[in-house]
Amino acid sequence: MMTSGTKASSFLKIGVVLFCFMCLFFATYMASRYEHQKTKTEIQVSKARELEEKIRELTTANKKLLHIRAALAQEKEQMAEEINTLREKCLEFEGWKHTAEKEMLKNDLTTNQELADTNDVKKRLPDGEEKITSTNQPVIVEKGNSTLTQPDTITPGKRLEGSHEVSNGK
User: Fold this and answer.
1) Could you tell me which residue, 98 or 1, shows the higher pLDDT?
2) Are the CB atoms for 122 and 99 separated by under 8 Å?
3) Which of 1, 12, 26, 82 has the smallest CB count inside 10 Å?
């Protein structure tokens, strides 16, 4: 038979044990919650560090790209200047080429104007009875810096190869 004091003490013991288990479970729960929060914080900190590292990498890459862009812009300007210089030289060359062509045409015109055919030469020869032979080559006059060939000499009474006989006025 148990007395009421013993009953109370056994209830008290059971209550104390239950309270201890409840405190133990509460402490375990709080520890797990703390660890979970700590893990979350560590994950967030590591993500923040990764993002900061990526930001540094991207900043470095951006700086490199800006330097490359500046170098390319500078090179583009230099190439544009070279192109303009070459265009000016090309225009100078084209101008020189056109000037040379004009001079050649002018020289051709003066050469053509100064050519005299064999009939003009015959008119200038003194009247004589001898036969005159010619090669029907035009007389070319030397003009300026250009060197032009002289035709074969016309001699009275002498026959040249490839020539035909012409009588003087008869």
Assistant:
1) 98
2) no
3) 1
